[in-house]
Amino acid sequence: MQFRTNPKNGDQLSALGFGCMRFPGMPARIDFEATEKLILTAVEQGVNYLDTAYIYTGSEAALGDIFTRNPGLREKVKLATKLPILKCSSMADFDTYLNRSLERLKVDSVDYYLIHNLTSFKSWEHLVEIGVEEWIAKQQEAGRIINIGFSFHGPEGDFEPLLDAYAWDFCQIQYNYLNEHYQAGTAGLKAAAARGIPVIVMEPLLGGKLAAPLPEKAQAVLTEEETSTDPVRLALRWLWDKPEVTVVLSGMNALSQLEENIATANDANPGCLTETEIRAVDAARAAVAESYKIPCTGCGYCMPCPRKVDIPGCFNAYNASFAHGWFQGVQQYVTASGALSGKLHLASDCTQCGACAKRCPQHIDIPKELGTVKRRLQIPGLATILKVGLRFIVR
Ligand code: SF4
Ligand code: SF4
Q1: Of 366, 368, 369, 372, which is best to mutate to test ligand 1, by the most ligand atoms within 8 angstroms of its C-beta?
Q2: What is the pLDDT of residue 395?
Q3: pLDDT tens digits for range 86-101
Q4: Least crowded by CB within 10 Å, which of 124, 127, 171, 190?
Q5: In this predicted structure, what is the pLDDT of residue 392?
Q6: What is the pLDDT of residue 383?
């Protein structure tokens, strides 16, 4: 495993971190046995950064059980979890959620604790008003939080002011070759590094978008030079090429993914990207951007919808209709509607209540975009056809 030094405290962190929001079976029911095997294998191979969150359903509790069943494991890793600020309106709430995280994880302290999902400077100011700074200081003094950081999904202009608003030990940003100028972006990465703040990268594959086979033009560039055309390898190497990146999180849910990512991490040191790979990324970026109309990463923070609309499923189908053709988009839309499992919920079922949009880290105007999905994919009569078809399925 390749390790990178945390410039703030000298921790040797594995370049590949384990993102714990996509354990096997999540979100319905975690397959504990498969998850335990994944975590143990990862740690055996040198992964020493585990990133979970209060809001990742079942994830903290599963990790807690894995620590209990495997004495000594806790000491081998740096554990990160996050404060769900959307649920907090007072200092007492901060206490409640940290206490619950510690109980679920069955630990006394968190190595890397994040203010989860700051979407603007204003959202930080609100937390300051309700006493977050005093609260952090108290928790650090008590040794319950070792390093304090924040994860960011706001506009580029708010990132630097946030970096300077508190004595952060680390930060976490969404970053990948398609998001160089989106949210914190490359400018934010460099700004954090210039302040000696380590950067943890999330969404390295943009919710799986960059794991799809590379567009033909990018493949051609790599094939010409007999270089691997594996899209995940290319996307991860693009990140590890940058010395300012400390840890790249990957939400791995299969041993094969874990092994491939570890193999990639082993030789992806700063400056590793070849001229050929740089040209391939340029070609891939142009082609992927073309079909990536709604910037949904599939994180699921907007769910559940009271009308049971599968929001990420609808957006995925819409994007697929540009990437792989309109017909494929309609097929995916029908699947996302639940028609095949006997429960029909279409984009047109949205009542525009707006609850989902407040939770979207990508700031997508979800009700409006569901209208766009409906116009492109919900052909006239589709709802009726599916409802009639459903009667046969339900029988
Ligand atoms: S705005 Fe529409 S999609 Fe969003 S939660 Fe409300 S009903 Fe569901
Ligand atoms: S719409 Fe937003 S919150 Fe919902 S899955 Fe997509 S990116 Fe996540």
Answers
A1: 366
A2: 47
A3: 899 999 999 999 999 9
A4: 190
A5: 58
A6: 73
Whether ligand 2 lies within 6 angstroms of the CB of 305 is answered as no
pLDDT of residue 53: 97
Length of the chain, please? Answer: 395
**Which residue is closest in CA terms to ligand 2's atom 7?**
296
Q: How far is the CA of 308 from the centre of ligand 2 (A)?
A: 14
* pLDDT for residue 41: 98
CA–centroid distance, 301 to ligand 2, in Å, is 6
Reading the block at residue 364, the tokens are 């997508």
Task: Give CA torsion, residues 236, 240, 246, 250, to 10 deg.
Answer: 10
d(CA 204, CA 208): 9
pLDDT of residue 390: 59
Whole-angstrom Cα distance, residue 188 to residue 182?
A: 10
What's the confidence (pLDDT) of residue 223? 79
Nearest-angstrom CA–CA distance, 230 and 244: 24
d(CA 318, CA 5): 41
Tell me if 296 CB under 6 Å of ligand 2: yes
CA of 355, closest atom in ligand 1: 5
Q: How many CA atoms lie within 13 A of 189 on its CB side?
A: 24
Measured in angstroms, how far is the CA atom of residue 353 from the centroid of ligand 2? Answer: 16
Largest CA distance in the chain: 64
Counting as low any pLDDT under 50, the low residues of the chain are 393-395
CATH architecture classification, 3-290: Alpha-Beta Barrel (3.20)
The whole-angstrom separation of Cα 380 and Cα 257 is 41
Every domain of the chain and the residues it spans: 3-290, 311-394
CB 276 within 8 A of CB 11: no
